[in-house]
Amino acid sequence: MSPARLFDGRRLATARTAAGFRNQTRFAEALGVSKSTVAYWESGRAPNPERLPAIAGTVKQDLDVLFPRRGAPDLADLRCDAGYTQYEVEQIVRSKDSVGNAERGVRRLAPGLMTALADLYGVTAEALQAAQDVSFGEGPPPLPTTLAAKLEYLLTHMYLGDNQPPSDAEIALRVNRAVGASVVSGSDIEDLRTGTVTETSPAVREGLAEAFGVSAFFFQPDQLQVVRTIAEGLRVLGHARNGDLLGLATRGLNEGQELSPELLAFINDIVDTLPD
User: Fold this and answer.
1) Which of 39, 106, 182, 238 could bond 101 through an S-S bridge, CB–CB 3.0 to 4.6 Å?
2) Hey, what long-range contacts does 167-170 have (CB within 8 A, 24 or more apart)?
3) Are residues 98 and 120 in the same domain?
4) Phi, psi angles (nearest 5°) of residue 69
């Protein structure tokens, strides 16, 4: 299983020095670990995930910024984000094996334990339930990360109902117009869309973003937060087209997640332009 958060030892080293820890020794002392442990981390070996909140706090950076999340959190991710090992949680809630069984997708948490864990992790009951669903393989689909997956995602989610997606040739034409030069053909787009070709030039990536009307960062590698924001926006559009925008805004994008002010502003700007 891939780690829930992306860890970069070089980014940690940069954050450490920016926070005033000029050497690894002082940083290690602040965290209560050895200098060799810090050196181990900064060489690229990720620490135990429950240590990440303390590390981010020590360098005064947001956890999601320093260690961005990969996909929706499961129960183990919420526990680690609260800074606890599985053993510590089971000691606190006095329930042996229940937490581990739920995290492994073996047996769901009892209602009383759900309440206790939500309080312990500092999340809502809805967020804990959503995380449990992920642990049991019932969470949202993974975010697109490859060029082919991103193209397929946009073609699937931006063109709903009778609104037909553009052909490969039409996409190529839009890209070339956006760039101001002939940089890609319809067959090139087909190769990217089907995954036959997995890389392309920065100009084509920027042209694709312009052609689909999304952030230029969407087609750049290692920009999961941008991809997530756009994916959320497209989901909002889908609900708006189906007449369920008010319900979505009330419930949040996922259980326990509220729509951000930026996304609500985005909704207000584009709802009036949606076709009947």
Assistant:
1) 106
2) 168/193
3) yes
4) -80, 145
